[in-house]
Design goal:
alpha/beta; Nucleotidyltransferase, domain 5; Aspartate Aminotransferase, domain 1; Aspartate Aminotransferase, domain 2; 12-stranded mixed sheet; 17 strands; 19% strand; globular; binds pyridoxal-5'-phosphate; transaminase activity; aminotransferase
Length: 467
């Protein structure tokens, strides 16, 4: 990946941007990404330049750029932005070597630096890729012993009606009632993952801010649709907690998860709600909300917050990942825009049957009991982990994020010993020393912790800095 770091004044044109980049970039360079200050990533000239060439465009907050040492700093730029060179800091942010130091081109102050950076994290890597026959699955965050028998019976019965095209109306009404909303504020989707794609296709954000580390599909969908994305990285030393001030004020689409995969951190509802404002869509991925007893920080029932879109999934708690079932709730006009992007009959008859069945008071009580059981199981896991392993943040969901010395090697050794855990380094903001581990029944956690203790006893210190 070649990263072109770029500093520019407001109002710069696409032609000026392309002339500057072409002056330093060898012809026919492939895999180009333009990186700049987040506010500049929203500039029409930069967007048009990136669009014309099919380049990715990424914006970074000034505070993030200010942390990168630059070879050619300028006092004037440092005074204005906080980094001595936007171009060099943006080029070097993800590592690599500076191959062309900054140069200024023409009357507009466009400076370009080029770095050959290591590949961006693989946003399409998910826990299921870690599985193999014979391995105990601590990599996928789906409840291992679900769906329960009564739900399997519902699914089987729904096959009898499979000849007819699916009718979403009853399930939609059931979901709407569960959240105290009218039907037109609910969109049923083939899993939460479909909702992210619909958002990316329906909206044309000037600046999308994605809070990381978090589930990577929302960012992948936004990038696939060609939208500029800025990453807001929540640091480890603050417990990966949400800092609303870190989200660029002019972001008109903000995406975050609550509780967050992979950190398991549960942000206070009030802190998340504070990010909503007129003119902005606030997408809160609550795929794991039902893993927290009582769902105290869920915003799914809030109808007063402008632009709030809450995405939910049934695949985790009910063990329905293969059925693909989820939904989004939000203002009716926004729901209608997303619906316009869906194909006809996007949610299958078994998925609709599961939705209606999992929304009854009895099913919700069962989910609540499962969340309470999970809380105890998580305590057991945390208590038996070896002392050299650091637990990041304050875990509140069905998985924990660990920092383990020489994590990549530890993961390999765990696999050799029959345990699959989820690598952390494909999440933006995490490193090879991060591993995500699913919370399972106490006897499974104890067995795992004993093996982990044995494996880490033979490892060297941490291999990478925590960003
Ligand atoms: C945080 C988060 N959101 C959404 C999803 C996707 O959920 P679904 O299976 O409903 O598409 C996942 C899957 O791992 C996830 O971790």
């Amino acid at each position: 990946m070649t990263t072109v770091g770029l500093g520019a004044v407001s109002g710069v044109t696409a032609d000026e941007v392309l002339a500057a980049v072409d002056a330093v970039l060898p012809a026919a360079t492939v895999g180009v990404r333009i990186a700049t200050l987040d506010v500049r990533a929203a500039e029409p000239g930069l967007r048009e330049a990136a669009d014309r060439r099919g380049w990715a465009l990424v914006g970074h907050p000034a505070a993030e750029l200010a942390r990168v040492p630059v070879p050619t700093p300028s006092a004037r730029v440092a005074a204005a932005v906080g980094t001595g060179s936007v171009a060099e800091a943006a080029a070097l942010l993800h590592g690599g070597t500076l191959t062309v130091p900054k140069t200024v081109h023409g009357r507009v102050t466009v400076a370009v630096a080029v770095a050959v950076a290591p590949a961006d994290p693989d946003l399409s890597h998910h826990g299921d890729a870690e599985l193999a026959p014979g391995l105990v699955d601590l990599a996928v965050n789906v409840r291992a012993d679900a769906p329960p028998p009564w739900l399997r019976a519902v699914l089987h019965a729904s096959i009898d009606a499979a000849a007819a095209y699916p009718d979403p109306a009853p399930a939609r009404t059931a979901v709407a009632a569960a959240h105290g909303r009218p039907d037109d504020e609910v969109l049923l989707t083939a899993g939460a993952a479909e909702a992210f794609v619909l958002v990316a296709r329906a909206l044309r954000p000037r600046l999308a801010a994605v809070v990381h580390p978090s589930f990577t599909e929302p960012e992948a969908a936004l990038r696939a649709a060609g939208h500029p994305v800025t990453r807001v990285l929540l640091p480890a030393d603050d417990g990966r907690r949400l800092d609303p001030a870190a989200v660029p004020e002019d972001a008109d689409l903000v995406v975050l998860g609550n509780p967050t995969n992979p950190t398991s951190v549960l942000h206070p509802a009030a802190t998340v709600a504070a990010l909503a404002r007129p003119g902005r869509v606030l997408l809160v991925d609550e795929a794991f909300a039902d893993t927290v007893p009582g769902e105290p920080e869920s915003l799914a029932d809030r109808r007063d917050l402008p632009g709030l879109l809450v995405v939910r999934s049934l695949t985790k708690t009910w063990g329905l990942a293969g059925v693909r079932v989820g939904y989004a709730v939000g203002p009716a006009p926004l729901i209608a825009r997303l619906a316009a992007q869906q194909p006809q009959w996007p949610v299958s008859t078994p998925a609709l049957a599961a939705l209606a069945a999992c929304t009854t008071p009895e099913a919700r009580a069962e989910a609540e009991q499962a969340a309470q059981d999970l809380t105890g199981w998580r305590t057991t896991l945390l208590e038996c982990l070896p002392p050299s392993v650091v637990v990041e943040g304050d875990p509140r969901s069905s998985f924990v994020l660990l920092r383990v010395p020489d994590g990549l090697a530890v993961r390999e050794e765990l696999r050799r010993r029959g345990w699959a855990v989820r690598r952390g380094d494909t999440f933006p903001g995490l490193t090879g020393d991060h591993l995500r581990v699913a919370v399972r029944r106490p006897e499974v956690s104890r067995a795992f912790a004993a093996v982990l203790a044995d494996v880490v006893a033979g490892t060297t210190p941490y291999t990478s800095e925590v960003p």
